[in-house]
Amino acid sequence: MKALVRQTLFVIGLPALLLAVWWIASDGSTDPFWPPLRTILETFPSVWTGERLRADLLPSLLRLAAGYTLAGVAGIGLGLLIGSHRGVRAFCEPVLEFLRAVPPPVLVPVITLFAGIGDSMKILVIASGCVWPVLLNTVEGVRAVDSVMLETARSYHVRGAGRLCHVVLRSASPQIVAGLRQALSVAIILMVISEMFAADNGIGFTVVQFQRSFAIPDMWTGILLLGLLGFLLSLAFQFAERRVLGWYHGLRASTRRS
Q: Residue 1 pLDDT more than 80?
């Protein structure tokens, strides 16, 4: 119970402190581009009504989920293939190093040429940036699988899908999850960027529209909503990670106690 209370304080303590600093620093501000936090919070409910949440937040979340899922499936699948075969890894490594060095926002105009300006473009932009942390962490996780475990599985005739699921994936899962965690923050950034380029709805589109119409407090509410969204998604991911990697965290805790 004490550990849960301590963890909760750590989770909400720093955000609460930053909001308090923001409130004090902006209180009494007359700068139109830096409104008081009090004004932003008072504006928030009138801006992000149920209708706007349905019209802007929901499409953004659907694109985020689709792009993130696509990147996760592609990154884990390709990572297992590349990490399991030395020849494939040697062949693909130069190309991977080149492609991952290209900033994903630069690909937005290129993807737009082929996919148009609809949801497909935005999903591909998100996936194109998220796939790299998942792919590279999966490759490293597969390469780091204990050779003794592989030999033991081979001696017990555990091959094919059984070897992949029960030995390789399980051993590599901590690094795969680390890649998925990194990809989540990248996905939120690319979701906003893709909606700023070409869209007629979404959080990024709405923030830009507020900025262009000089509705500055409304613009800040969109930024605040993005921060809240990232915070909640991070909490959800941590919860899922604890469930999926319960055995791993338990092993680490027992190792520290010993």
A: no
Per-residue pLDDT reduced to its tens digit, 166-214? 788 888 999 999 999 999 999 999 999 999 887 889 999 999 999 999 9
Tokens coding 149: 């475990």
> Look-up: residue for tokens 């900033």?
103
Please report, for residues 36, 70, 144, 234, the alpha-carbon distance to residue 97 in angstroms, rounded to integers and kept in the order given.
Answer: 45, 21, 20, 28
Residue 165 structural domain: 50-257
C-beta of residue 87 within 8 angstroms of C-beta of residue 210: no
Query: Could you tell me the pTM of the whole model?
Result: 0.89
Residue 237 CB burial class (10 angstroms; 0-12, 13-18, ≥19) = middle
> Alpha-carbon distance 237 to 133, whole Å?
16
Structural domain includes residue 95: yes
CATH of the domain at 224: 1.10.3720.10
